[in-house]
Amino acid sequence: MPRVLAIAGSDPSGGAGIQADLKSIAANGGYGMAAITALTAQNTQGVRAVHVPPAAFLTAQLDAISDDIGIDAVKIGMLGDAAVIDAVRSWLEKTRPAVVVLDPVMVATSGDRLLQEPAEAALQALLPLADLITPNLAELAILLKEPVAADWPEALAQGKRLAAQTGTTVLVKGGHLQGADPQNGDLHNGDLHNGRPGADAGNGTDGDGTDAGCPDALVNTGGLLGRETVVVPGERIATRNSHGTGCSLSSAMATVQARVGDWEAALREVKPWLLGALREASVLEVGTGNGPVHHFHHMQEFTRGPAEGEFAAALRAGAAADLEAIYALEFIRGLADGTLPEHEFAYYLAQDAIYLNGYSRVLARAAALAPTEAEQLFWARSAQTCLEVESELHRSWLSTRPTAPILGPVTKAYVDHLLAASVSGSYGVLVAAALPCFWLYAEVGATLHREFLAGGAPGAHPYADWLRTYADEDFAAATRQAIAYTDAAARRASASEREAMALAFRQSSRYEVDFFDAPRLHA
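Below the sequence we write its predicted structure tokens.
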């Protein structure tokens, strides 16, 4: 695992700078370390303030790391001022890391200068110490003291001139060429590594637009690549969430180069990863401005969740067999037509009262874990309903049907399952486990009530009053809300957590079947 040191500024919103560097390093198989060159106050809408600590403190950070830890690669981003640049240059000359990638932060895509001329001179002296330089097109032009390239051939030519001037390899990024759209990220990126909003809006690997192509190229004049130019094509991703692409690209290149030892192979590995990070960026839902890229999109735990309603539909489809099994039970058929033996009904009521006591505690736990106030209130009120309304109803019925309040084996197993879900630490697993008591019970109850009404002569039915309770619209509304909250939890969950949610739901659904069948077995 390559040990990669990022030397750059901090973005407290997590999208760019050191934060993006560390995510990129980890996502590409490295162990990330960080030396902070600048502190910023910023979010996805822009940078509000920048503080550059004394250069001597940066030197102390760098020495502390290199005195103790082997460094396989270094990525350099925002450097702030000439004193900071000189400190980094002195440290590089002393330590001589095997791989150095320099992202020369000098100018925003909007054209604003981010580094004053004295500091630019210091940066020029730093360039020959890098193995790879990754400027955006405006920075490439400033380093050469030339106008910004207007097309891809001129960008390549400028890259070759910079490579010849510095004796190193240059990564020329084509994202800012052709069809740049200021409303789609190019002029409003707020990438931290430039220290203010507006630099290096990324798409493909840098910038955004509307045309289909977004090439990048490695260029040098010393045959380090086996040829002077290696062009890697790529697509353009339509997204506003491009914050931190320049940081992410350069740190990923440092990491993969340390691992594979070949710049072309590194770019061919990193570019698809970064395209995916842009493509999946909207999944993160971070901020109201130019959001970050999704560094971990390629990991199973962080894949895109299901669409709204998709998870709930899958649960309902999976429960179809259990519902059919419930409708086929002798207990349900007897309850519907009035032939159910009285002692079986009494046992069912007794077990239901015991169950609701435990179920209310499970719902209270769901309220404690719920991520929003609305969900907290819903589950807390549902727990209260179990105790104050339904349990009282059952006790009223039980008062005329004496039966021993003995905890049955099915009731115990069901409640134990729910309690286990409640201590799992996962809100999603807990509400999925609790859902069948809402959903299956509501569906079975609605079906029984319809059949009861269709049967006529309700006065002669021994369970007429009980069956009327199944028509409660408040419970139907609560069931719809429970389904919606469970589906929302699944959309927020990782893939493995959704699998655990589905399993918990299936187990509870099976317990619902067994619970309705328990009176017959007890008899």
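DSSP finds 18 helices and nine strands in the chain.
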